[in-house]
Amino acid sequence: MTKIADKQINDFAKKQWEKSLAFLQGHFNLRRTTCEDIFQESFIVLYENIKSGKLDNLTSSLSSYFLAICKHKALEAIRATDKNVTIDDELSLSLMDGGFDEEKINSILALDADDTELNLKKGLIVREIVKNLPSPCNELLWGYYRDNLKMVTLAKMYNYKSEGAVKVTKHRCLEKFRNRFSQIVKSIF
Question: pTM here?
Answer without folding.
Answer: 0.44
